[in-house]
Design brief:
12 helices, 12 strands, TIM Barrel, 8-stranded parallel beta sheet, alpha/beta, binds zinc ion, two-stranded antiparallel sheet
């Protein structure tokens, strides 16, 4: 059975995205600071196992293990020459598990430095870099691209444009927002919600929203979702919270929200008008399964 276009499906029902990939790879032995995308070729069965767990948890959208697979981000590990391979194998692992009913989102994360004038990267050069990654993901057969954890609206705009140049398929774009004081939220670069979302939509994003966002609690996320929905107008909104705000334990960030804590936020998130809910850092297939059950209770009941 052919899948419908993701945007058409979103008009009919809210969808469940998957949860963290990095957290799952760390549990399975990935060393801190190591390149998780390298497992797409070195340990593809593990990457696939994570996708399978999210699929079995009921996730409608499966995200490829390619967050750090732009040539610029891979360059930090001396792996720029692996860009095409790591994106292609990452997409293949997700597609294998998502077929036939789930949609595969090709994941694109920040390139890791600053664009001019704060840094050395030229916007035109970055357009080529993100374009190369998007082309590799689309060539491997992903259904859409998700651009995540962005702090700089200019970088997000460049990534959206690169994805749109590579294909007419849907592009999802999300920022990591932080507490901006007085009930407001801003990106790390200081951009308020309204401006950040307007710029994402103007650049061509088909779905906009937030993910990650260190320091935000689940109730902060509900307030943030309200503000994003208001800013987004007719554009559908996605929210992928972390498993609560992290605590520092033995020098490591630990996310403590339990599946039932995440579940409790689902009705409020849906009430704001959010159309895709998923999870970011610290979330597991158990969290997503519980969230999916809460989602179905809200939409069916
Ligand atoms: Zn995260």
């Amino acid at each position: 059975m052919a899948k419908t276009n993701l945007l058409e499906e979103l008009k009919k029902r809210p969808l469940l995205c998957d949860g963290a990939m990095g957290t799952q790879l760390f549990i399975r032995g990935l060393a801190a600071g190591a390149c998780g995308e390298l497992w797409n070729v070195g340990r593809p069965e593990v990457v696939q196992e994570v996708h399978r767990a999210y699929r079995q948890a009921g996730c409608d959208l499966i995200t490829t293990n390619t967050f750090g697979a732009s040539s610029a981000a891979l360059g930090k590990h001396g792996l720029s020459d692996q860009t095409a391979t790591l994106n292609r194998t990452g997409a293949a692992a997700a597609i294998r598990e998502a077929t036939p009913d789930a949609w595969v989102l090709g994941d694109v994360g920040p390139f890791g430095e600053f664009i001019e004038p704060l840094g050395d990267m030229k916007a035109e050069e970055l357009l080529e870099i993100f374009g190369e990654q998007a082309a590799a993901l689309y060539a491997a057969g992903v259904d859409a691209i998700i651009i995540e954890t962005m702090s700089d609206p200019t970088e997000l705009e460049v990534a959206v444009k690169a994805a749109k140049r590579a294909s007419a398929k849907p592009v999802i774009a999300t920022y990591a927002f932080a507490d901006g004081g007085g009930g407001s939220f801003r990106t790390m670069m200081g951009t308020p919600v309204k401006d950040a979302i307007a710029r994402a939509i103007a650049a061509g994003a088909d779905v906009v929203g937030a993910n990650c966002g260190s320091s935000l609690s689940l109730s902060d996320y509900v307030n943030l979702a309200e503000q994003i929905v208001a800013a987004a107008g007719k554009t559908p909104v996605i929210v992928q919270p972390n498993a609560g705000s992290p605590m520092l334990l033995d020098g490591k960030l630990v996310y403590r929200a339990k599946p039932e804590d995440m579940t409790a936020a689902v009705p409020s998130l849906l009430k704001t008008g959010v159309r895709i809910i998923g999870g970011c850092c610290g979330t597991t297939p158990s969290h997503l399964r519980a969230m999916g059950e809460a989602m179905r209770r809200e939409t069916v009941g």
